[in-house]
């Protein structure tokens, strides 16, 4: 097990009882052929996806991406895990040719922006931080935004950092953490590889895994590398660690881009949120 991954008793959970609501910010076709995005993609993996995870297959056989955020609520906290692709005109929306709908989904879930007290960013990529801000100000004015220090250091020269993190820091709402950390009754787990400071969120309902698994086939073939992983070998270790955690605890893995949550046995365990936008895990 990599020293930066799930160390010191990964089964132990410093969590409280929560509800987890899936918020499907958008759906879009990945703009590159799947065999380029996932080098080594095989006919067997394509056939498996068409059979077992057809919601991730575009009409032309390409890769259909779902962009999920997660609302985690307890009797004390309202936590948002990732903030999606953002509004029309934003960098992610322009890249994907679609527009996020997270504010409407939160309203449908009965939660206003001011009620969110914690925003956890799994990592600082534009399709996970798109609704961080409202212009030059934090969209969630009462929230602490929590990011791994290693991720901030990695991302600090990027446009995403300048546009979507610096306004948070300027408002005094950015919290950097290091390693496994308890936040708002949840447990943050370092799961590096996709980015150096990628983190996942352990709840009593699910493991919210960000981009540890970008495609459902990676639950069956964890060695399947995504071309944009910064450290593929480390990312593979993180995938194996989370799959083992899911198998040991019985918790589903709810990642950002697969249509459904996944089990440690690589089978779908929940319906899609993307038809109506909301789904309770």
Question: For the largest beta sheet, what order do the strands appear in spatially?
Answer: 8-7-4-3-2-1-14
Question: Could you name the ranges where pLDDT drops below 50 across 5 or more consecutive residues?
Answer: 1-13, 266-270
Determine the CATH topology: Metallo-beta-lactamase, Chain A
Q: What radius of gyration results from the CA coordinates?
A: 17 Å
Cα shape: globular
Distance between the termini: 29 Å
Number of domains: 1
Q: Average pLDDT value? A: 90
Please report which band the strand proportion falls in: under 5%, 5-15%, 15-25%, 25-35%, 35-45% or over 45%: 15-25%
CATH architecture: 4-Layer Sandwich
Order of helices and strands: EHHEEHHEEEEHHHEEEEEHHEE
Helix content: 10-25%
Largest sheet features: 7 strands, mixed
Question: Helices and strands in order, then pairings?
Answer:
Layout lengths: L18 E11 L4 H4 L5 H10 L11 E10 L4 E4 L9 H6 L5 H7 L9 E3 L12 E2 L2 E2 L5 E5 H7 L3 H6 L1 H5 L3 E4 L3 E3 L2 E5 L8 E4 L4 E4 L6 H4 L11 H18 L3 E3 L22 E3 L1
Parallel strand pairs: 3-4, 4-7, 7-8, 12-13
Antiparallel strand pairs: 1-2, 1-14, 2-3, 5-6, 9-10, 10-11, 11-12
List keywords for this structure.
Metallo-beta-lactamase, Chain A, 22% strand, five-stranded mixed sheet, globular, 9 helices, alpha/beta, 281 residues
């Amino acid at each position: 097990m990599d020293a930066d991954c799930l160390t010191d008793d990964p089964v132990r959970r410093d969590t409280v009882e929560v509800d987890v609501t899936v918020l499907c910010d958008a759906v879009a076709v990945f703009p590159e052929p799947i065999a380029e995005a996932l080098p080594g993609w095989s006919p067997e993996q394509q056939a498996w996806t068409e059979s077992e995870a057809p919601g991730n297959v575009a009409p032309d056989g390409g890769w259909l991406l779902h962009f999920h955020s997660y609302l985690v609520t307890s009797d004390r906290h309202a936590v948002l895990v990732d903030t999606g692709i953002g509004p029309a005109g934003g960098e992610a929306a322009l890249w994907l040719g679609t527009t996020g709908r997270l504010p409407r989904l939160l309203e449908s879930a009965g939660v206003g922006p001011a009620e969110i007290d914690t925003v956890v960013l799994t990592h600082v990529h534009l399709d996970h931080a798109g609704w961080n801000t409202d212009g030059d100000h934090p969209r969630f004015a009462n929230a602490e935004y929590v990011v791994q220090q290693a991720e901030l250091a990695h991302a600090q020269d990027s446009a995403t950092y300048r546009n979507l993190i610096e306004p948070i820091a300027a408002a005094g709402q950015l919290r950097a953490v290091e390693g496994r950390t308890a936040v708002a009754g949840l447990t943050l787990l370092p799961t590096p590889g996709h980015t150096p400071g990628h983190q996942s969120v352990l709840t009593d309902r699910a493991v919210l895994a960000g981009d540890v698994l970008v495609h459902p086939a990676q639950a069956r073939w964890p060695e399947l590398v995504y071309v944009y992983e910064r450290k593929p070998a480390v990312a593979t270790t993180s995938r194996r660690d989370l799959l083992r955690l899911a198998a040991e605890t019985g918790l589903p893995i709810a990642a950002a881009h697969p249509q459904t949550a996944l089990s440690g046995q690589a089978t779908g365990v929940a319906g899609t949120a993307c038809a109506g936008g909301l789904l309770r895990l």
